[in-house]
Amino acid sequence: CGSCYGPTNHVEHVRHVKRMQPGAINATYGPSRALEWGQLNFLHTTDTHGWLEGHLKEANYGADWGDFVTFSTHFKQQAGNMGVDILLVDTGDLHDGAGLSDATSPDGEISMKIFDQVDYDLLAIGNHELYLADVAYQTLNEISAYWGEKYLTSNVQIANQETGEWQYIGKTQRYFTTEHGLRIMAFGVLFDFTGNTNVTNVITADAMVAEQWFLDAINTSDPIDVFVVLGHNPARDSTFQVVFDAIRAVHSETPIQFFGGHSHIRDFVVYDQSSTSIESGRYCETLGWVSMSGFNADNSGYDGISPNPAGVPNPTRKATTNSTSPFLYSRRYLDWNRRTLEYHAATWYNDSFDYDNGREATAEVTSYRKQLNLEDLYGCVPQDYCMTCAPFNSSDNIFPLLSEALAEVVVNTTRQDIARYVISNTGGVRFDMYKGPFTYDDSFIVSPFEDAFLYIPEVPYALASTLLDALNKAGASQKRDLGFMPVERDICVDPFVEPLSEIKRELDHGHSHEPLGISRHQVVDLVPGYTTTDDFETDGDDTAHSAIPYYSIPDFFQGAAGFDADGHADVVDVVFVDFIESDVLAILGVNYSSSDVDYYNGADFTTRDFLPLFVKQSELFQAGLPNCTVG
Ligand SMILES: Nc1ccn([C@@H]2O[C@H](COP(=O)(O)O)[C@@H](O)[C@H]2O)c(=O)n1
Ligand SMILES: [Zn+2]
Ligand SMILES: [Zn+2]
């Protein structure tokens, strides 16, 4: 296995969460344990990718941004009442994934204003804020300008629009004192991203930790009780390790708390006895919770530090079994639904959950969705199609369908008599397609990028017909941008996970899954979803789920059209999305260069356009109209 960059056996494999029917959240299998509150508490979001309306077709992730605005207000109040600190953290990738963010130009023009209604304390930039120049400048002029000292881009710069000089998009660090007296030094570190627009500059973590500002920050004479390192960077096996090493070289015992993202998984990693790292999923499916206690007059230099709050559970876990550090931790991954939020805001027994600020945000989501026509109905999806819950070539998988769509609608009518392969990267497909209405919004949800179709005309069949396999053997060059540090692994873990695996196996071996309060006869009814295993083992998911099968997929897929009955042609137009141009040219070899490449169907027909067009003209999708229902 040459490229085991993906989840390891430490990390939960079930990234893609199968839908449950709207209304399927029931009283039995929601959250069942109060959160452990410590002296310092965190709520964490990451990779929201514009999903501020929540998941309209998955009740388990059905809360919207207004619900989170309300919930986070409750939590700030609760922390205040308990006399402890809470910090809200986001780690980037704010668009490219849903209509609310992507149906405007530039992306995020409207969704950012809704996102901003949560009272975050610290935020970091994601790679999706850096692909395009207009989005990067929007990040500078709107996001960074709005959040000010809270927006941390310790290794990301942008060319000043007047002088051309590099300037940091946000701040490099934030040193501040919490309400209850903890002195925090925070950094925001993006992985070593290379696919950014050339008006931006991503400094590698290795180079960043050698910079004078960073050395000054960690060697400051100002007291530091805790480092908070946030970043769009996987919690595990990433350049967070570089930052950890650099801080530890100076501060051997000070707690360092990491908040990561980008690989779209739930994960929690122990760096050492006083340092842990959380990653909180993707697409408004997960709200991450971390709490810690152990601050005292000796290690925080602050006499009046609040004790653990009374009347609620408190963190109990040492980071390592032989820890001699005073710090105790808890972590939890909350499912993004109202029942969960109401439960933890302790309001489920009455009607007092909603606040005006949340209601207003919800009303804005609804009204902007209307304004952007996101509910416009394009077709009716006859069945569920998923990205990874079924084998790649099976009829339940989305890629055979998308291959057909590419073949059918990506066509230059002046060249339609020439056979064509239309090649795309599977990474450009972002979500499953569910049975029921297919709306304008869904076209962004499945395929949000504006990657144009390029082509090389009339490539000999012998070469063109080997291209897809060769590309998949080589693997996508974007692998470099997954953010994982390549690590030597002896075994490549088979990513297939049996349904009901973890919990069921445990029950079958006679253990009750006590922390989740689930008994043997209940397990069969669990709703499919996240079943996370991390460094604190298996009790991180706030709601227990049955696991969803996971099948690995190749990096590239293609549609083919215009071939003879035997699938042959003399020459083939090789059409491909611009995001993978360098991969294609690398495989085609020295006889081809970018001068052979041109737009196939103009610059304006992109990966955003082919699916809605296919849906509108395909009998398969039109048959169920007009009475198309969810599920
Ligand atoms: N124009 C683009 C930009 C990105 N992609 C795909 O997205 C992946 C990165 O997404 P994360 O949420 O994980 O940061 C990237 O590796 C590409 O697969 C794309 O297809 N087109
Ligand atoms: Zn992302
Ligand atoms: Zn990312």
Quick one: overall form?
globular
Q: What small molecules does this complex bind?
A: the ligand Nc1ccn([C@@H]2O[C@H](COP(=O)(O)O)[C@@H](O)[C@H]2O)c(=O)n1, zinc ion
Instruction: Give me the number of helical elements.
Output: 18
Secondary-structure content class: alpha/beta
What value does the average pLDDT take?
A: 89
Q: What value does the Rg take, in angstroms?
A: 25 Å
Strand order of the largest sheet: 4-3-2-1-14-16-15
| Helix proportion range | 10-25%
List low-confidence stretches.
1-27, 487-523
End-to-end CA span: 38 Å
Question: Can you give a write-up of this model?
Answer:
With 631 residues, this protein is an alpha/beta fold. The protein is built from 18 helices and 23 strands. The chain has a 7-stranded mixed sheet. β5 (156-159) and β6 form a beta hairpin. α1 (65-82) runs antiparallel to α10, α11 (398-409) packs across α17 (610-617) and α14 (467-474) crosses α16. The longest helix has 18 residues, at 65-82. The radius of gyration is 25 Å and the shape is globular. The protein binds the ligand Nc1ccn([C@@H]2O[C@H](COP(=O)(O)O)[C@@H](O)[C@H]2O)c(=O)n1 and zinc ion (2 copies).
